[in-house]
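Entry for the shared binder. Reason: the reviewer on the internal report wants the predicted structure included alongside the sequence.
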Amino acid sequence: MSVTTIESTGLAQGIWSLDASHSTVGFVVRHAGISKVRGQFTEVAGELTLGETLSDSSVTATIQAASFSSGDEGRDGHVKSADFFDVESFPTLSFASSAISGDTEDFELAGELTIRGISKPVTFKGEFNGVAVDPFGATRAGFEAKTVISRKEFGLTWNAALEAGGVLVSDKVTITLDVAFVKAA
């Protein structure tokens, strides 16, 4: 998409809204050094504004921190507490793009990710999955992307030492996006 117009990909210029019910904003973090915990945020809103090219386009997203879900109520409650997200003081996480580059095979989405009121630059590496018109006449576009962050850089510093050495929760967190957008009418 960097050397061609957006339309050459089947996408249309304009505003596209995130379809939260057909999207996943997930994470993977190593636990106790031996396994990985996966989960997602279930309340997400976002908007993709497509210009003539990727460099003319932008993405914004807002995530409700309290929608964090890893499938374990005890762990979820701890992660929502002041030890991690502190959802009472910081109810949302957000992302605003600063640049989109590449093509449909290999694009990069750079921007500012804000967690616990701390904003840091991140770059998602992703792939465009195509465009389809659903049975109800809505035009949809799908994308996958991921990035790795240091949770400590966002003030998520809680941890516990393990008897055999190391820590309970790794610093490295992989954020995964599998998202669908719907073209505004």
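Summary line for the report: The radius of gyration is 18 Å.
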